[in-house]
């Protein structure tokens, strides 16, 4: 026997708008102090094709997304 939620009223994602450090585009400001983003390189296998590699940037709040 198994049990699981099918509906949740929780918040599925939280987005934070961060200010970049003017002196370093790979850092953002937390309480006025710069904090470096972490760089992660990910390679994904593609069926019948060459692997695809992308760079992801992460903050203490999660991955960086742009609009």
TrEMBL record:
Lineage: superkingdom: Bacteria
Gene3D superfamilies xref list: 2.30.120.10
GO biological process terms on file: antibiotic biosynthetic process
Pfam families from the UniProt entry: Penicil_amidase
GO function terms (MF aspect): hydrolase activity
PANTHER family, A to Z: ACYL-HOMOSERINE LACTONE ACYLASE PVDQ, PEPTIDASE S45 PENICILLIN AMIDASE
Protein name: Putative Aculeacin-A acylase
